[in-house]
UniProtKB/TrEMBL annotation, chain A:
Annotated protein name in UniProt: Replication protein A 32 kDa subunit B
Species whose genome carries this gene: Citrus sinensis (Sweet orange)
Lineage: superkingdom: Eukaryota
Automatic annotation (TrEMBL), chain B:
Any Gene Ontology biological process: DNA replication
Top-level taxon: Eukaryota
Gene Ontology CC entries for this record: nuclear lumen
Keywords: Nucleus
MF terms (GO), sorted A to Z: DNA binding
Name of the molecule in the record: Replication protein A 14 kDa subunit B
Cellular location(s): Nucleus
Principal cellular location given in the protein's record: nucleus
Protein source organism: Citrus sinensis
Similarity annotation: Belongs to the replication factor A protein 3 family.
Presence of keyword Nucleotide-binding: no
Pfam families for the chain: Rep_fac-A_3
Keyword Acyltransferase: no
């Protein structure tokens, strides 16, 4: 028996102790899609929403990512006041979707009163389905003020789709996010499990990173810490790469090294 | 949910692909008169936008949603003021992506 604060290391050192009883690492094979504590926020187009494959809105997924909360940007084509429910028809250029906003408090009424027909808005909401009709249960609608946000939203839709299909291999294993705080919202699972399907993809990532113009122009090289941080690669994985010198050094630098010059 | 009438993101160079179809684009207004609005697309082409003009004054950058009559003219349905500053380069890149390998996300 153990008393006080449990010390896993001490327990293992004593022998005869089952690690599975001590550790609390989540089973990687568990279905995260059924974990109701997991929340994702995905920027999507209405076209993407229309193509979601699911039997009901609680288990929808796209490109291997669970769909919980989504955000769309579009024009308000129509508004219906059925207080306390307000229904907005949003057209984002790829399609139209109905968004319901329930207002019970003054702050919520104030938010709804800001919205008018013909206005560009940003909507955050949960997808819901009723009798084969998909709509959004919006919990936030706000007018777009800087119209670069429209461009930004659709670029984000493209990025997320690319990220979920190519960079993650479309698997349900969600890798660690990049350093950008802006992208953290795409991944609600803050897992320390970080994996690639193939080792050579890490090589290629590092090589592509080193070939960036700003690094090619700089003859001083790139510190491994910079590579590790920018690509969010653990140092041990970075150091285990087998990149040849001809890949890493520019031809001029390589010949200078061979000739013994700096 | 209705995806039957999309408006495709286009710049001047992409309009030829969607003549007769519903498009959306952002132009920088050069001239506005009875014959329509002349503007510069995000990739530098001159476009003419015809149709009933909105009842409000146009800002420097305007989004036009309508039907592409030709590869250089639009019959506008909706006008949206986008203000006097706008990142045309990013928008132009978006148009390229939305009509390239990521077309399936839009139309």
């Amino acid at each position: 028996m153990y008393s006080g604060e449990f010390d896993g290391a001490a327990a293992f050192s004593g022998g005869g102790f089952m690690p599975s009883q001590a550790t609390t690492v989540p089973d990687p094979s568990s279905s995260f899609s059924k974990n109701r504590n997991v929340r994702t926020l995905l920027p999507m187009t209405v076209k993407q929403l229309s193509e979601l494959s699911s039997n009901d809105e609680s288990s929808a997924s796209i490109d291997g990512a669970d769909v919980n909360t989504i955000t769309v940007v579009g024009i308000v084509c129509d508004m219906q006041d059925k207080e306390p429910q307000f229904i907005f028809l949003i057209d984002d250029g790829t399609g139209r979707i109905e968004c319901s906003r329930w207002a019970h408090e003054q702050m919520e009424f104030n938010e709804v009163n800001q919205i008018s027909k013909g206005m560009y808005v940003r909507v955050y909401g949960h997808l819901k389905a009723f009798q084969d009709k998909r709509s959004l249960n919006a919990y936030s609608l706000r007018p777009i003020i800087d119209f670069n946000e429209i461009t930004s939203h659709f670029v984000e839709c493209i990025y997320v789709q690319l990220y979920n299909t190519r960079l993650r291999g479309g698997s349900s294993n969600q890798p660690q996010m990049t350093n950008s705080n802006h992208l953290k919202e795409y991944n609600a699972i803050s897992s320390n499990h970080y994996s690639f399907d193939e080792g050579k993809s890490i090589d290629q990532m590092v090589l592509n990173f080193l070939r960036r113009p700003e690094f090619l122009a700089n003859n001083n090289g790139v510190h491994r810490n910079v590579i590790s941080q920018q690509l969010n690669l653990p140092m041990d994985k970075l150091m285990s790469l087998s990149l040849s010198l001809s890949h890493v050094f520019s031809p001029i630098k390589l010949s200078a090294m061979q000739n013994g010059t700096s | 949910m209705d995806t039957s009438n999309p408006a495709v993101f286009v710049n001047g160079g992409l309009m030829r692909m969607y003549v007769g179809r519903r498009i959306r684009t952002v132009i920088q207004v050069i001239q506005s008169d009875g014959g329509g609005v002349t503007g510069k697309s995000t990739d530098g082409h001159q476009l003419v936008v015809k149709g009933p003009q909105p009842g409000f004054p146009l800002t420097t950058f305007v989004e036009v949603i309508g039907i592409a009559d030709t590869d250089r003219s639009i019959r506008a349905e909706i006008w949206n003021n986008f203000g006097n500053t706008f990142d045309t380069q990013s928008y132009n890149q978006l148009c390229q992506l939305a009509n390239g390998e990521f077309k399936h996300l839009f139309i």
